[in-house]
Amino acid sequence: MVICCLYTSELDHPAVVGFRDVFLTNAFNDNSAIIVYGCTPCSSTLQQAHMCDPTKLTSFSSPFNINRTVRPYSPLKNGPSDLGMLPESAVRSYLAQLTHGVRFIHKQVQRAFGVLDPTKELIQDEVLVDRYEDLHLTEDQAADFVQLKKLIVGAACGTSEAIQNAHRTASFNLLQGTYTPDRVTLLRNLNCGQVTDFDQLVPAIASFVYDQLTNVCDHPDFPERQLLLGMECNRLFRMVCKLQSLVERSDRNGSNPDWSETDVRYTLKLLRDFIFHQPDQLRASFLDLAHIITTLNKVETGSGERLYVVNQDGQNMIIVTYADIKQWLDASFAHLVDRHRQIRCDIRSSQYREARQ
């Protein structure tokens, strides 16, 4: 146990669930050793994901008992034999990820898994090997490849019955009718023990490992793209908040009640109408999200492009640049914030003076 813990504590690999701690306890009325592995939330085992559908047992269930008497009728037993095989792209992905973990244990840790079992492989966004044993090296590394074959065949056929020796012929018949000859040949070689070393496995999986590498490289790009979209939405949202805070204010505690309708604030009001209240050629409401986002982006970036804005009756027209609007928007909002702080400060000062009196 100590030797196992010493080298499991050195494990750090994305395809292997990490070892965390080990401690002794007598909570179960005996001397037990509790081994703690890393938590992988929202995951399921390979067996739970692909080998628990009872309808997929039909092609591996004989209608006869051992004494050749007919079994009672069962809708599952007499159902269709189409198992709904796992897509070959998923089989390639599982092979690449599982062999990734096997190579790490065989080559770098210099050990054998020994427990490649459907209940020990976790599926989340990737396949993780839950645990392994410290066994005799050479023969047990070779046995790992046979167990690897059983994992893939069981997941592909959708039932743990497919990995039983009695159903080997039926399993490979299903595989031959579904997958490419190269994939079936690879599984046969694993099953027959012809693959005893990882170097022998590399040529057979090299053709699709690069596809898996592409998926791995693309995986972090997706949340990054979503993050960029979120950042863009936040920028535009802040700009809309600033604009709506300035336009048509009805403050009564300021020195100039018509502040939002004068000077550059009036241009900002016309900009608001240009973005959100513009009519189309038929005088109907012009509701174009692309127009709204494009205009806001040009204002946010301070584009030098010119635009003209008009009031509702079409009597007044102002030609400005997006850069001017951005400058006026920021300056007016900063003035509004300063005035808000000054008013609050004056109110607190007045309350403080009244309290002292």
Automatic annotation (TrEMBL):
This protein's UniProt keywords: ATP-binding, Nucleotide-binding
InterPro entries assigned: PAN3 (IPR030844), Pan3_CK (IPR041332)
Localisation: Cytoplasm
Superkingdom of origin organism: Eukaryota
Biological-process GO terms, alphabetical: nuclear-transcribed mRNA poly(A) tail shortening
GO MF, any single term: ATP binding
Protein name per the record: PAB-dependent poly(A)-specific ribonuclease subunit 3
Organism of derivation: Paragonimus westermani
